[in-house]
Write a structure and sequence with these properties.
Structural class: alpha/beta
CATH class of the largest domain: Alpha Beta
Distance between the termini: 44 Å
CATH topology of the largest domain: Rossmann fold
Number of domains: 2
Shape: globular
């Protein structure tokens, strides 16, 4: 649907899934991937239950860490869309994207390798080179790994000069906090 630019169909598909969850009695739901957040606001508007956003959770986390400029890595869809820059701008954090050539390389590696569970040292080195360039030239303080496979590629990274924000881990923490908050409210009633 993304490749074909069929965003209304993606909204319909995701909304249908959330509707099934709502009928099953969930208190809230989430979309556990970054790229579908292209249509998050539309899905949330159609939902009868709140959604926990991976983008908002990551922005809030970056704010607590005091970051003012972050880089964005992910699929070409994610890096090219406005949902990360818009959410981060809301709290005063600039989102810097790789160059067009770097975005094309990252997207190709993501689709051709990472989604096929191929985590190659050469790919890791290329992405680390892009990350370092963004730190040196663009002044980013951290990189948002806005693709659930990127933390797998970057695990055991040895360079502590640049923080990598694992959106998957950040999202899971936000979901657990929501579960605990909802549980505490239920116990209080």
């Amino acid at each position: 649907m993304l490749n074909a630019g069929r965003l209304p169909d993606l909204v319909e598909y995701l909304s249908g899934g959330v509707k099934v969850l709502a009928r099953a009695g969930v208190d809230f739901a989430c979309i556990a991937a970054n790229t579908p957040h292209i249509v998050f606001d539309d899905v949330q508007r159609r939902s009868t239950v709140p959604l926990v956003s991976i983008v908002r959770a990551t922005a809030d986390y970056a704010q607590t860490r005091g970051f003012k400029r972050v880089g964005l890595l992910g699929t070409g869809f994610t890096m090219g869309a406005s949902f990360y820059p818009d959410e981060f701008a809301r709290i005063g954090i600039a989102v810097i994207r790789p160059t067009e050539a770097e975005r094309a390389l990252i997207h190709r590696k993501y689709i051709d390798e990472l989604l096929k569970n191929r985590f190659l040292p050469d790919t890791r080195a290329e992405i680390l080179r892009i990350a370092q360039r963004m730190a040196d030239e663009d002044g980013v303080q951290a990189l948002v790994l806005a693709g659930t496979e990127l933390p797998l590629l970057m695990r055991d990274r040895q360079d502590p000069r640049l923080d990598f924000l694992d959106t998957t881990a950040i999202h899971v923490e936000a979901i657990v906090r929501k579960l605990l908050d909802d549980s505490d409210r239920s116990l209080a009633q």
